[in-house]
Design brief:
Elements lengths: L1 H11 L25 E4 L7 E6 L5 E5 L4 E4 L7 E2 L9 E7 L5 E8 L4 E5 L7 E5 L6 E7 L5 E8 L2 E7 L7 E2 L22 E4 L3 E5 L7 E5 L7 E4 L9 E8 L5 E7 L10 E4 L7 E2 L10 E4 L7 E5 L2 E5 L7 E4 L5 E4 L5 E4 L5 E4 L2
Antiparallel strand pairs: 1-28, 2-3, 3-4, 4-5, 6-7, 7-8, 7-10, 8-9, 10-11, 11-12, 12-13, 14-15, 15-16, 16-17, 18-19, 19-20, 20-21, 22-23, 23-24, 24-25, 26-27, 27-28
Length: 357
Amino acid sequence: MRSMGKTRRVLAAGLGGVAMVAALTVPAQAHGEHTPTWKVKNTASDARFRGLAAVSGSTAWVAGTKGTVLRTADGGRTWRNVSPPGAEALEFRDVEAFDGRRAVVLAIGEGEASRVYRTEDGGATWSESFRNTDPKAFYDCLTFFDPRHGLAMSDPVDGKYRILSTADGGRSWAVLPSAGMPAAQPGEAGFAASGQCLVASGPRDVWLATGGGATGRVLHSTDRGLTWTAAESGIPAGDPARGVFGLAFRDRTHGIAVGGDYRAGQPSPDAAAVTGDGGHRWRRATAPVAGYRSGVAWLARSHATALAVGPTGTDVTRDGGHTWRTVDTGSYDTVDCTADGACWAAGEQGRVARLAD
């Protein structure tokens, strides 16, 4: 199972290139609804950014390949390279930021390649707060309930997902007991594709997305990761490349799951699902996303609108995830929206964009 997980992440890493500087959108439908439009920002980087933390319309952080971390404070007009020194060999796949100065980033990989760094000065200096020493662990995602309490998740170790916890903003971490974690399916793991395989909403609820096993599941905890329940998402799995890749909850009951098969050219039917009861039951979207989607986010100013992104485009829903339509054909891996109504997306070849006003 470890070798399959490693292969999945190597294939998903993608290749670098030149940052794109123009948006590509699909015209609005005849009913006159506003069509979301991405405005691509020039990052001057060729890293692939699967980690994204949108703080506001002006401030965002991205994290990606070659140990790269960038930060903007002017809406993406300029980007500052704030990468941790000596991290060039690491793969950053998640970043959680509390403001323009405080952020936590996760590097993925087997054994000591899985690490956590944190900064309190906008990336001018970093401290390594966790380095995995278990060769069987492979950390995929981070999430925070508030600026102090957060979790990180690893692929199954001895048959169960491993959960790492912090109560001091990421300064120190401890592995939680596994007694309350259901057994993993054979071949099951998380996908370090968008920083959204572990997401929180409110002070105690957290969800974990899975793939690779017989079914794509979503695990839910109401006590910050101590005990979990598992539910089938309806998103097909049954292959190391298929399952649930990204989750988004606008509150502790209403959630969206997206995924599919990340391999180029492979079909991804029924790649979106919704829940209205906190993840106890999931229903497949009646008009699903157009293909594999790795990231999803709710728009803050709407209870029904969300965006899903992947290498072949962006889809929008206006009915809480039941039906989707494609509005952009640009490649993105992850998406994040802020309380002030801004949305950001990031992906391959240094590509970062902000949703047009």
